[in-house]
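A quick word before the example. In earlier lectures we treated sequence and structure as two separate objects. From today on, think of them as two lines of the same record. Here is ChbG/HpnK family deacetylase written that way.
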Amino acid sequence: MTADVRLRVVADDVGQSTAIDDGVLALARAGHLTAASVLVRAPGALRAMAALDGIVELGVHVQLAPGDIAGADTDRVAALITAQVEAMIAAGHSPVHLDLHTAALYGLGEQAVRSGGVVAEAITVAAHYRLRFRLPRRAPAGLTAAQTAAHEQAVAAAAVAGVTLPEVLVTEVPDAAAVPAFLAGLPGLLRAGGTEGAITSPQRTGDGYGLSPGPGPAVEPEVGEVELVTHPALRADPGDSLGRERVRQYTLLASGGLHHR
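And the structure line, produced from the sequence above:
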C-alpha cells in the first residue's frame, strides 16, 4: 500500500451479545483492531464500551426499527440518530465515526421503508459531531439507476458538509485458503482516500476464534474472517513508514450478512 491509502476495518455490532463482545475485545487486545462500532441501545453496550475504552476508538452503529422511521420527517430521524450519539457521549466516550446497522437504513433491500433510508440525516449528524460516516464514495456494484443517483447525491452532500467517507467498502471475504491471494491483490483494489472492510464477528473459543451471531456455541467459519483479521500482512508494525497514518480497522458484522456475488 502507498502512503496515501488507509485501510479502515471497524468492529460492528458491539454490545449485541457477550460472544461478540468477547471476540472483539480479544482481537483488540491482540492488536488486530483499532476501532469498533457500538449498538448503544443494546443491553451490553455500556459494559462493552468500558472494556474497549483506551484500547480502540469507538463509533456509533445506528440502530433504528422500521417503526422508528416509517413516515418520520427529517427532524425526527435526525433526532433519533443524535440521541444515539449522545448516549455514547453520556457514557463517557467520544465517538469518532458513525455508521448504519442495516442495508435498509441505507435505503437498500426489500426491508427498506423509507426512500433513501436515513443517509441524509446521518450525514447531517456526522457533520455536527465531526464524525466519519460509512458510505463509500465509489458506488457499489449492482445498484439501480435510482440508487446510483441517490448515492451520488449523498456523496455530494457529505462533501459539502465536510464529512469524511471511505473511498470503497469491501464486504466480500475470501475462503481461508484464498486469503494470501486476496491480500496480494488488495493494493490494486484500494484507492487513495481509504477502505473499509466488512467481515463476520468472531467469538473467542478455547483454542481459537469461532463465529457466532450471538450467544451459543461457536461454529467453524466458512470464509476466512479470522485468517484475514490476524494475517501478519495487516498487523501493525512499529517500524512501518506510514506510522499512525495506517488506520487498521476491521468491520465485524455479527449478523452474518455477507453475500458472495
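Notice the following. The longest helix spans residues 74-90. We will return to this example when we discuss secondary structure assignment.
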